[in-house]
Design brief:
Chain lengths: 312, 412, 273
């Protein structure tokens, strides 16, 4: 099709534009549906902005109030970080263990795979209703079963020490999504790699550490980042299951923002809150990304590096 | 190989286009409806289930009678506040909205005084006087009363019978209630005499203070000396003592779930649960809230009204519908799930003779003249949050703070 | 891998233990759904209702126009899934297989859209959709999907990054153009992760509650998730129909998952070979 003369020129031109053509849908979507509202909310954060009535420009007062005059801001931040610290590693670990379990070539594994995935299919609203229904400390079914076993169940939703654990239990129920992502990746590892290792005398644990883990580091990165974001923005469960209680022990940052916007009707202040969290998550993500060059191995990049070295 | 793939793609493309078209066209037809010369009014309700169906029936009636107006019902359910907040915030509020928390939304609402004045004094006086208070902010009326409930004591007759107790009667006192709770409580059978929310809504809880001659604030909105007054502390201490003695438990929600288990003797709340308790097979009775000594008890009124959006483009038509919605016919149509607010309907339906409904009307008459703090203070939603936390500290088993200390910490 | 008997027993007991945690809430939801009003709240709880009321499912379905809701949910779910598959595969491919100016900044920007708290952009976005005349239509729920979502793009990119670079270089030498490389070589390879994205999107959209709540007004436009939530009033929860409809609502996604399993199991490398 191309004559030999103009091929290289055209090729580079096309190659310069081509990547942008591929990502064009997202760029359009970003400009139309995200950028505007985002800028708007940044502007809102500089205003005293009730849902109805006069809006008033107040500069950085919302941020000042947040940092200096609202103890709930710090409380919510701490609780949320605490939750993320428990939730993220636990969820990753459970997801990974389950993903490994369901790759076991044993009978009936398909059924278990479906069972483990099942809760991830349920909506957040229904999850909170189902668990709230079981967690009732006085007349709920969980504590009743525990009492049959001779254990006095905790006051799940009344005792502040237990409430955050309750949230962890209920939210870990939906671990299936992450499990499935790990599973898809693990399933993609060629069987020959294990076979070769097995011939070399590596046991299952050894194989897991030297083959499975390195190959799935890209998905680990994905799951770490998305679950950090999910944990820091958790709202549905605390809104519907605990309402932030008992004693504000589950008054997560997401709920703090939500209440400022929808209960106290302070849209400007809520925007300021949200922008702060946005920046925190952004910095965290960038940090994780920076660190990822040390522990995430992409096949495409590995190959490139090797080639580069060869050329030298 | 190439052709079938393209065919596949084409096939997929056609599906997408048809689905997109069907998604769009369905909305277009809806837009046209408003353009046939009719005034289209959006009406938002928080009711759910059968109630919505009943409301739709009423609206159909109205639409049939008024050829120039078309009212569309929008049922938002449990997340009503989120939805209307979004609508108001984006300047796209429904024309007519169910409303109870007027102070919170008043900037988005149309004052109705002039409309009401046009209908004459008799129109206004047919509504229970106490209810206008709950549909106004300051001097301005923002809503027409639709329904209401006062709070009453629900008691489980079977448990009373089993304990050999007489049913409570109007005019009883908190001491009577405590004595009954003690006799009802049976640890082995997991039966408790009395239950109240462990995280009570401060809006509701103020009625107990009223009954004891106290309130959160004075008429200037000052907390100190009111919330932490002797009478107020006494009230909280009484509730706390019942928990300590084990004759009462705190509930996780409003308490209806616990009451439905048949293991709770008494619980206080509004008329929402009348049919639910019957369905759950609870043999219950209702009675007025007990009094502190000689002071007659009072109840908060959980009122529902309808308000008009300030941005509505068809205010006259909207009020016409509001008038219909609060009129006698509509009051009667909603009898099955709502307590009528018109004196003429209460009379004609002989509700004062109904052994259950009359209790709610008695409580309403007893509660005239009390104004909840939410209508007095500037920033109730914030204060409510603070109060709620303190109340929880008083009642939660892991804290059980001394009421005096706790209340002082907010008031000062 | 050789599997010993001991190994098997250990694996099975762990599997069963986890199953208990994952399955029990469903069992309890089902038991609740077939009880009578009086039995639901009775204490101690009954594990087998006297008369199992399967009719509760029919009653729950008929108590609201769930047929309409089902149709709306299907329209939204199918269209968004198609939109996500097309847009995300293109965008992820662009990010994963090319080097270009501002790539890292743009990718960070993409990721950052995942972190925007929903509460604050919701009202401006509402205003925008209102300007387009999209409020009370299904469009706000569908159209954005045709421009990709950060979550799916990110996930797909991670898979694509893990494919050796030689693949497209060989094709380029054979004279294939860039789009042909994407379409003929990479699209087939992406079958497993694209299926995964389809499954995840179907579940997300099927269950989405806040979007429909905010953008839809009247019942003829409602989706299943909104219908389910309508059993929850301000003062009371109708626990029986909620449990019944929750169970009904998981059927379509479970069917999808059952069919999708096969493709996900193949993995990516399976299709390279």
């Amino acid at each position: 099709m191309f004559t030999k003369k103009n091929k290289p020129k055209k090729f580079t031109l096309v190659r310069k534009r081509v990547p942008f053509l591929f990502i064009l849908p997202w760029i359009i979507g970003f400009i139309v549906f995200t950028l505007g509202p985002l800028v708007f909310s940044l502007i809102m954060s500089l205003f005293d902005w009730p849902i109805a009535g006069e809006t008033k420009f107040i500069g950085f007062d919302n941020f000042k109030t947040m940092f200096t005059a609202d103890p709930q801001f710090y409380d919510s931040l701490v609780i949320t970080l605490k939750f993320a610290l428990i939730f993220v590693p636990l969820n990753l670990l459970v997801a990974l263990v389950l993903a490994l379990l369901i790759t076991q070539p044993i009978k009936g594994i398909k059924i278990f795979r479906t069972i483990f995935y099942l809760p991830a299919v349920v909506s957040g609203v229904a999850v909170s209703i189902i668990w709230g229904w079981m967690f009732n400390s006085e007349y709920g079914v969980l504590n009743y079963i525990l009492s049959l076993l001779g254990i006095e169940g905790p006051d799940w939703l009344i005792d502040p020490k237990w409430a955050i654990i309750t949230i962890v239990i209920a939210s870990a129920w939906g671990v299936g999504t992450m499990m499935l992502i790990f599973y898809t990746d693990i399933k993609g590892i060629p069987y020959e790699m294990y076979e070769a290792a097995s011939i070399d005398g590596a046991g299952p644990i050894r194989q897991f550490i030297s083959i499975t883990i390195p190959t799935i580091t890209p998905t680990i990165l994905f799951n770490v980042i998305t679950s950090v974001i999910a944990a820091l923005q958790q709202l549905t469960l605390v809104l519907l299951l605990t309402g932030g209680g008992p004693l504000k022990s589950t008054y997560f940052y997401g709920l703090f923002v939500y209440n400022n916007a929808f209960k106290h009707h302070e849209l400007g202040y809520a925007s300021a809150n949200a922008w702060f969290m946005f920046i925190i998550i952004l910095l965290l993500t960038m940090l994780i990304f920076k660190s990822s060059s040390a522990w995430v191995f992409y096949e495409a990049e590995v190959k490139k590096e090797r080639k580069g070295r060869k050329r030298k | 190989m190439n052709v079938p793939k393209k065919m596949k793609l084409f096939f997929l493309f056609t599906i997408v286009v048809t689905l997109l078209l069907s998604a769009c066209s369905s909305s277009d037809t809806n837009g046209e409806k408003a353009e046939d010369g009719k005034v289209k009014l959006r009406f938002a309700t928080w009711d759910v289930g059968d109630d919505v169906e009943l409301q739709q029936g009423l609206i159909d009636e109205f639409n049939a009678k008024n050829s120039d107006i078309e009212v569309v019902l929008e049922a938002y359910g449990g997340d009503y506040d989120t939805k209307i907040t979004a609508g108001i915030g984006a300047k796209d509020a429904p024309d007519i909205m169910y409303m109870w928390n007027y102070p919170q939304y008043k900037d988005a609402l149309e004052p109705l005084d002039s409309y009401i004045k046009d209908r004459g004094e008799e129109y206004k006086s047919n509504f229970y006087e106490a209810l206008w208070n709950y549909n106004s902010v300051g001097e301005d009326i923002y809503g027409l009363p639709v329904g209401y409930t006062t709070h009453v004591v629900y008691y489980n007759k079977d448990l009373f019978d089993a304990a050999g107790l007489e049913y409570p009667q109007a005019g009883w006192t908190w001491e009577d209630l405590q004595a009954a709770a003690k006799k009802l409580t049976n640890k082995d059978k997991k039966i408790t005499g009395f239950a109240f929310p462990g995280q009570p809504d401060p809006y509701d809880f103020e009625m107990y203070l009223w009954g004891n001659g106290a309130s959160y604030v004075d008429n200037k909105g000052k907390l100190d000396g009111n919330l932490n007054s002797k009478k107020s502390i006494e009230t909280f201490t009484m509730f706390q003592n019942m928990l300590e003695e084990g004759t009462a438990i705190t509930t996780e929600g409003w308490g209806d779930t616990e009451m439905k288990s048949g293991k709770v003797g008494m619980f206080i709340n509004g008329a929402w649960y009348l049919s639910a308790f019957t369905e759950a097979g609870i043999n219950y009775g209702v009675v007025e809230i007990p009094a502190f000594g000689n002071n007659p008890s009072a109840s908060i009124v959980s009122s529902s009204g309808i308000a008009m959006s300030k941005d509505s483009k068809h205010k006259e038509a909207a009020f016409k519908f509001m008038e219909f919605w609060t009129g006698e016919q509509a009051n009667k149509a909603r009898l099955s799930f709502e307590l009528p607010v018109l004196k003429s309907v209460v009379e004609s339906e002989k509700l004062q003779e109904d052994p259950i409904k009359k209790v709610f009307y008695n409580m309403l008459e007893q509660s005239e003249g009390y104004t909840p703090t939410s209508f007095v203070t500037e920033d109730w939603s914030k204060l409510s949050d603070e109060l709620s936390l303190v109340f929880e500290q008083i009642f939660n088993p892991s804290t059980r703070v001394d009421p005096k200390e706790a209340l002082n910490s907010v008031a000062k | 891998m050789k599997i010993t008997r001991k190994h098997k027993i250990i694996v099975y007991s762990i599997l069963v233990l986890f199953s208990l945690y994952f399955l029990f809430p469903f069992i309890w939801a089902f038991i609740t759904a077939i009880k009578s009003e009086a039995e639901v709240f009775s204490f101690p709880p009954k594990f087998v209702p006297d008369v199992p009321l399967l009719s509760n499912f029919i009653d729950a379905w008929n108590s609201q126009p769930f047929g309409t809701y089902f149709k709306n949910s299907m329209i939204v779910t199918v269209l968004t899934t198609i939109g996500q598959l097309i847009s995300c595969s293109l965008v992820a491919y662009g990010f994963a297989r090319y080097d270009f100016k501002y790539k890292n900044i743009l990718f960070m920007l993409l990721l950052s859209t995942m972190m925007i708290p929903w509460d604050v952009t919701m009202i401006p976005l509402y205003m925008e959709f209102n300007m387009f005349g999209w409020i009370n239509t299904l469009k706000p729920l569908i159209v954005p999907a045709f421009f990709g979502s950060a979550y799916n793009i990110f996930l797909l990119r991670q898979f694509l990054m893990n494919i050796p670079k030689d693949l497209e270089n060989a094709a380029r030498i054979d004279g294939a153009n860039e789009f042909q490389i994407f379409y003929k070589i990479f699209l087939p390879i992406m079958k497993a992760p694209l299926t995964l994205i389809a499954v995840l999107n179907i579940i997300l959209v099927w269950n989405d509650y806040l979007g429909p709540l905010i953008y839809l007004n009247d019942q003829s436009k409602y989706t299943m998730a909104l219908g389910l939530a309508s059993f929850q009033g301000v003062h009371e929860l109708q626990i029986i129909p909620i449990m019944a409809m929750t169970l009904v609502m998981i059927i379509p996604p479970v069917i999808v998952f059952a069919f999708a399993q096969k493709y996900i199991v193949e993995g990516i490398s399976g299709s390279i070979k």
